[in-house]
Amino acid sequence: DMGNTSKDADRGKRATKASASTRKEKADQNPPKKRSRKDPAMLDAAETVHPKHEATNMEI
Question: Where is the composition biased (Basic and acidic residues) (predicted)?
Answer without folding.
Answer: 47-60
